[in-house]
Every structure is written in C-alpha cells, then in structure tokens.
Design a protein that fits this description.
Blueprint (H helix, E strand, L loop, with lengths): L1 E6 L3 H14 L3 E7 L2 H11 L3 E5 L1 E2 L2 E2 H7 L6 E6 L3 H9 L4 E3 L4 H13 L4 H15 L7 E5 L4 E5 L3 E7 L2 E6 L5 E3 L3 H7 L5 E5 L2 E4 L3 E5 L5 E4 L4 E3 L5 H10 L1
Parallel strand pairs: 1-2, 1-3, 3-6, 6-7
Antiparallel strand pairs: 4-5, 8-9, 10-11, 10-14, 11-12, 13-14, 15-16, 16-17
C-alpha cells in the first residue's frame, strides 16, 4: 500500500485527487495533503510518504523547487502539471511520470499502479531530476534523454541518437559509437519526445536524426543511407515531405 501525500495549492484539485485515490486505487491510501512548497517539505519530513502527487505551479515556487530541497528522495512522485507542450516534452525526456490537468481519472490510476509496481532507487530519481534541470536550460538539440532498460538506466545525448526502429511495443535506439538499446516504449512515444529536436519519421517503423544522413538513394522506392551505413526506408506517403526537408539541409 503506497502511503500517499497530495501537494497542490488548489483545495478543489487536492479533493479531486484524493477522491480518485480513495475510490479507485487499491494500491494507495492518502495520508495527508499540503498546499505549497514549504508545507510540502514539512509534510514529507513528518509523514515519510511512499508516493507524492505533486503540483508544479504553487505560490511559493514549483514542485521542482520542492524536490530540490528535499534531502532524501526515497519516495515515488508523480507530477501534476498544466504546463505547455514544450515543458511537458522536457518532462517526458527526463522519464518522469506526470499527469496533465485537468486530471484524467484513468491516467492517474495507471500512473499510481505503475508506481506501486516499480522498484524505487534514489539514484534513479536524482538522475531524472538532474536531466530535467539540464533539459530546461538547453535548446532542443542539446537535450538529454533518460532511457530505461530492464537492467540499467542510461542518460543519452539527444544529438547522439542516430535512429530509432520500432519492434512491436519496443524501440531499438541506435546511438553514436555505442551499442543500441532496446527500450519498452513505442516509436510513437519516441517521436513525441523528440519532436523539434531534428528527427523525422520516415516510415511507420523508423525515426531518424536528420544530422546523420549520408545520402538518399532514389532506387528501390527510396532509401536513406545513414552515416553508420544503416539503410532506412522511406514510405511513399512520407517521400515528398522528406525530399522537401532534404532541400533545406
């Protein structure tokens, strides 16, 4: 049972979250609530929760400020945010669990269930937060991406990802001068995380980093040869868009 603390400056928002947890989440129970950063830190130290449901925008700072001030992040946390898409992308790239306001009941239930089944390590939590802080201060091409495999957590520079290949509900990530990684995310999730970072979806199974294109072969329906000599197909419906991009590179 996850002993859960709800932190949000809006009383109605806290009540909505509490109702969802109490009515639908068998793996969690609410043990307290807080309305700002200062109160949140105090309650974390007093109650020692297993899970914190954390709003971002509060009167005396942000949820990220709170996490930076907590000495030991030995609890799961799920970010609740009304941030714009650009900020949400940085959160995704940092592999942080989040829910967008207005809160969708099913999404919160799934996020809490995921937390209940995930082994917590403080090192992983800190790596994710440090990556988020870095991404918030970096332009899109220089961001980092947290990649979790069954054995390890990797921090990868976005501009070192050559390509991504779909494998059912998994994605094989090809990284410059390193072994490829198989990640339990769909290619669509990677496409969303890497939007605006210089990537292009050439095919239902392939996403490429445009900076690593060597040349385009017009034969056999169209094939991209990457700098690592890999061959990436271009689907017929993506061909015109890709050729337009090629003229601008």
């Amino acid at each position: 049972m996850l002993r859960t603390l709800v932190i949000d400056d809006e009383p109605n928002a806290r009540q909505v979250v509490k109702n969802i947890v109490e009515l639908y989440c068998k793996s969690a129970t609410v043990i307290g609530e807080a309305e700002n950063v200062l109160d949140g830190i105090k309650k974390i130290n007093e109650l020692k929760p297993d899970l914190v449901l954390l709003d971002i925008k509060m009167p005396d700072g942000t949820g990220f400020d709170l996490l930076k001030k907590v000495k030991n992040i030995n609890f799961h946390f799920i970010i609740i945010t009304a941030f714009e898409q650009y900020a949400i992308q940085a959160i995704k790239q940092s592999a942080l669990d989040y829910i967008v306001k207005p809160i969708n009941t099913n999404e919160l239930i799934v996020a809490i269930e995921k937390a209940s089944l995930t082994t917590l390590t403080e090192a992983d939590q800190l790596a994710k937060l440090e990556t988020l802080s870095y991404n918030q201060e970096s332009d899109s091409g220089n961001r980092r991406l947290i990649l979790n495999t069954q054995e390890s957590i990797y921090i990868v520079q976005v501009n070192e990802i050559i390509s991504c290949k779909a494998d059912k509900n998994y994605t094989e990530v090809n990284i410059l001068n390193k072994n490829s990684l198989v990640i339990s995310k769909t290619l669509k999730e990677f496409e969303d995380m890497l939007t605006g970072c210089g990537f292009f979806r050439t095919h239902q199974s392939h996403l490429i980093n445009l900076r690593y294109i060597d040349y385009y072969s017009k034969g056999m329906g169209g094939t991209i040869i990457m700098q690592d000599s890999s061959k990436i197909p271009v689907s017929s419906r993506k061909k015109d868009a890709f050729l337009q991009i090629m003229t601008k590179l």
